[in-house]
Design a protein that fits this description.
The chain is an alpha/beta fold. It is built from 16 helices and 18 strands. It folds into two domains: about 30-220 and about 370-420, Quinone Oxidoreductase, Chain A, domain 1 (Alpha-Beta Complex); about 225-365, Rossmann fold (3-Layer(aba) Sandwich). About 35% of the residues lie in helices and about 25% in strands. The strands form three sheets. Strands 3, 5, 6, 9, 10, 17 and 18 form a seven-stranded mixed sheet that branches. A six-stranded parallel sheet has the order 13-12-11-14-15-16, with helices on both faces. Strand 17 (about 390-395), helix 16 and strand 18 form a beta-alpha-beta unit. The chain is globular. The structure holds zinc ion (2 copies). One zinc ion binds near residues 88, 140 and 223. One zinc ion (ZN) binds near residues 110, 140 and 223.
């Protein structure tokens, strides 16, 4: 029968696929109806039935590591053995109570890992694209693939993601996949709840990670690099030769510098209040640096650009003061791109007449489009155009996640910290 297949390899691929589908079906047929039994009855060969995850309980309370039942994926979802998860400011906004989110929840939203299982009734094409054992990277905006925005390719605006995940802490059937081992109680998911030994991710949020890229460093592709790319590509539409300023050189701001360099920006101006971050910025492509504690940001940007201002200024802090500086730093017709989240209700000011007469564009940008953009980011990293190595400033162990967030909160992390999970 092998002669029917173009090669032995394609025969093997199909065989593996059929085996995987058979096992999914078997599990489904033996499944039981009640929710508690459903999760505790989920067993996979060579996979423990329980896992640990980092839980946020309520604002200002310390994170804790808790035991959970192995999370069970549903149709179109993939169970991943998490290898690494980045430490991002967005999680901090939730932990500090700046942005309301369902709690208790498992935080962490930029991950890499190994595919362990697929939900029953998952499309054959998905199983084929991400076979069990394959290496993947996951984006924090997990597109449903079916809403009005997703079908237009605007996955960064996915209705289901905002309506279910961001508003309720669940996946798109309105339910979490995380249940405590001790009492079976549900715990919500910030994106996929990535600071866990296993996580469930909608397949639309995944891209294949080649063997040449390390698990740990590549985790940042799913938020820091993803967000920077979305800002530069979709919001700013950067062209070669553009002058760009980035205000706030944290994990995402520093990724913006590298993406700006990749897009051929001429002047790349890094603005921050910490000299160590500015020094690091030079490695990532900054042609100029400004310490906002020592110099006037807008004056200095004008000086560097011959009095004109930059084509594109990016605000990565979410502060009213830097919001205003960003709009004032762009040249006539320029674009002020806002990517920094602020506490809910925060309001920014803008010089109205200048905005009108000089045609300043203020553009909000959140993440990027997983299916079209994430594979491109993998390529940028694979070819070394984007250096993951330079973007990572700290690696820590699973038990050290809470301490890493404390350090991030206190400005002690230059660049990005990544938690290595297994
Ligand atoms: Zn993030
Ligand atoms: Zn959608």
């Amino acid at each position: 029968m092998a002669f029917l297949f173009r090669s032995w390899r394609s025969f093997q691929r199909l065989y593996n696929l059929r085996s995987s589908l058979r096992s999914s079906t078997r599990r489904n047929l033996s499944g039981v109806s009640s929710k508690t039994e459903d999760v505790s009855g989920y067993h996979l060969r060579d996979v423990p039935s329980f896992m640990r995850a980092v839980v946020f309980w309520e604002p200002k309370k310390p994170l804790s590591i808790e035991e959970f039942h192995l999370p069970r994926p549903k149709a179109g979802e993939v169970l991943i053995k998490t290898k690494a998860c980045g430490v991002c400011h967005s999680d901090l906004h939730v932990m500090n109570g700046d942005l309301p989110f369902a709690s208790p929840c498992v935080v962490g939203h930029e991950i890499t890992g190994e595919v362990v299982d697929h939900g029953a009734h998952t499309d054959v094409a998905v199983v084929k694209r991400f076979p069990v054992g394959s290496r993947v990277v996951g984006a924090f905006i997990m597109p449903c693939g079916n809403c009005g925005f997703c079908v237009k390719g605007q996955e960064d605006l996915c209705e289901a993601f905002f309506a279910y995940n961001r508003a309720k802490g669940t996946l798109y059937d309105g339910e979490t996949r995380l249940f405590l081992r001790s009492n079976g109680k549900p715990v919500y998911m910030y994106s996929m709840g990535g600071l866990a030994e296993y996580c469930v991710v909608p397949a639309n949020a995944l891209a294949t990670l080649p063997n040449s890229l390390p698990y740990t460093e590549s985790a940042i592709l799913g938020c820091a690099v993803f967000t920077a790319y979305g800002a530069m590509k979709h919001a700013a539409d950067v062209r070669a030769g553009d002058a760009i300023a980035v205000i706030g050189i944290g994990g995402i701001g520093s990724s913006c510098l590298q993406i700006a360099r990749a897009f051929g920006a001429s002047e790349i101006i890094a603005v921050d209040v910490q000299d160590d971050k500015l020094e690091n910025a030079k490695k990532l492509g900054a042609t100029h640096t400004i310490n906002a504690m020592k110099e006037d940001v807008v004056d200095k940007i004008k000086e560097i650009t011959g009095g004109m201002g930059v084509d594109i200024a990016v605000e990565a802090l979410g502060k009213p003061k830097t919001f205003l500086q960003t709009t004032q730093s762009v040249k006539d017709g320029g674009k002020a791109v806002m990517i920094g989240l602020a506490p809910s209700g925060a309001v920014g000011e803008v010089d109205i007449t200048r905005l009108v007469r000089r045609q300043i564009k203020i553009i909000g940008s959140y993440g990027a489009r997983a299916r079209q953009d994430l594979p491109k980011l993998v390529k940028l990293a694979e070819t070394g155009i984007f250096s993951l190595e330079d973007a990572i400033s700290r690696k820590c162990k699973f038990d050290e996640a809470a301490a890493a967030y404390d350090d991030l909160n206190n400005g002690k992390i230059v660049g990005r910290a990544v938690v290595e999970i297994m």
